[in-house]
Design a protein that fits this description.
The structure is a single chain. This protein is of the alpha+beta class. Helix 1 packs across helix 7. The chain contains 9 helices and 8 strands. Strands 2-3-7-6-5-4 form a 6-stranded antiparallel beta sheet. The N terminus and C terminus are likely disordered. Helices cover about 20% and strands about 15% of the residues. The structure holds a DNA duplex.
Length: about 325
DNA sequence: CGCGTTTGACCGGCGC
DNA sequence: GCGCCGGTCAAACGCG
């Protein structure tokens, strides 16, 4: 665990090296480079992103409590498992909107100014994403995989049907290690040079049979110490590695995607939230999926919460610097 | 030998 | 229509 902090998103302006990213990311860095971050457990979720590249909807959320609670989980999945959904009416909704109209949240990355760090989660969802989510849930996954497999041999099957994109979840971490250990086994299937970035982007796929979860890993061109990991899809199996006897993942809803299927926030709201961070005390993110129900609730500081425990034990300080816990940097 | 990585080619979407 | 670009495939290769 390392120091972390939310980086206030700068005003929406232009694109950046990560503008190729389907969604937005908030900065996450760890203040203590050594030892290198080599586990997702060391990362701090930070924000939620949404949408695919087209209907890219995204939004930042205050994840202070996520960070805090997450600190007690053996893994991100544990964390989700330990944080059942609470309430659903207050949840903010990310509404898909053209990525071009969105502020380039990647700008956030352009401000690695804060020495302290944080990890950030981004997730994406849109209609297609939701559809994809439904597909997974209904077992159409194999079909899609098959489609992928034969994509090269057979020509386009459904030309007019856009390829559906799984909901995505992105982390940003400050790490010397590109490929973070998140408890699952990944097989690298591709690597591409990233435009405007000296660092390549690596593509990984979950090696478990039938599991179509993918993830991309790349470094920020602005700050080579920042690693952006984007998860796509849902695991349909428990984590093969279950540190500290973690519960593993339920088969019907285990991926990040599930968590993001309902992250829909109107662009305007997103813009607001993008600058709210810790100043926005209540943002619950929920999902319609009951088995996998991460709820990011930040409306209050519970003295008996794991977050408080962390705080009391001085752990929180490592996660969220005092400056970030106080006043959000607006604009 | 099995598994993972590397890498060039290919495909499809999208903007101009 | 063309070119760019992100994403994927799959053969070759490396490693334990």
């Amino acid at each position: 665990m390392a120091n972390s902090s939310f980086i206030t998103p700068p005003p929406a302006t232009t694109t950046s090296d990560i503008d190729q990213m389907p969604s937005a990311y908030a900065l996450s860095t760890t203040a203590t480079p050594p030892p290198p971050l080599n586990s997702i457990f060391d990362m701090m979720p930070c924000d939620i992103i949404g949408g695919d590249q087209k209907a890219g909807s995204l939004g930042f959320i205050d994840l202070l409590d996520i960070n805090q609670d997450f600190g007690t989980a053996a893994s991100l999945f544990d964390w989700f498992a330990q944080n059942p959904i609470v309430g659903s009416q207050q949840q903010q909704t990310f509404v898909p909107s053209p990525a071009s109209t969105l502020p380039e949240t990647s700008e956030v990355l352009n401000n690695p100014a804060t020495p302290n760090s944080s990890a950030s989660i981004s997730s994406s969802s849109n209609e297609a994403g939701n559809d994809a989510f439904q597909q997974v849930k209904t077992g159409d996954q194999e079909e899609e995989q098959d489609h992928d497999k034969t994509k090269k041999q057979l020509k386009p099957k459904k030309k007019n049907q856009k390829r559906q994109r799984e909901p995505r979840f992105a982390f940003m971490t400050k790490s010397e290690v590109d490929h973070l250990d998140d408890g699952f086994r990944w097989r690298k299937y591709g690597q591409k040079a990233v435009k405007n970035s000296p660092y390549p982007r690596s593509y990984y796929r979950c090696t478990s049979a039938g599991c179509g979860v993918k993830k991309r890993v790349e470094r920020s061109s602005d700050d080579s110490s920042i690693v952006v990991t984007t998860y796509e899809g849902q695991h349909i199996h428990p984590s093969p590695i279950t540190p500290r006897g973690s519960i593993g993942i339920l088969t019907d809803s285990t991926g990040f995607g599930a968590a993001t299927s309902s992250f829909v926030i109107p662009e305007t709201q997103y813009q607001q939230h993008a600058y709210m961070y810790s100043s926005s005390p209540s943002l619950n993110i929920t999902t319609s999926n009951t088995s996998f129900s991460p709820t990011f609730s930040f409306h209050q500081r519970r003295s008996d919460s794991p977050a408080s425990l962390l705080r009391d034990h001085g752990l929180l300080q490592d996660i969220v610097p005092s400056q970030m816990r106080k006043e959000p940097k607006e604009e």
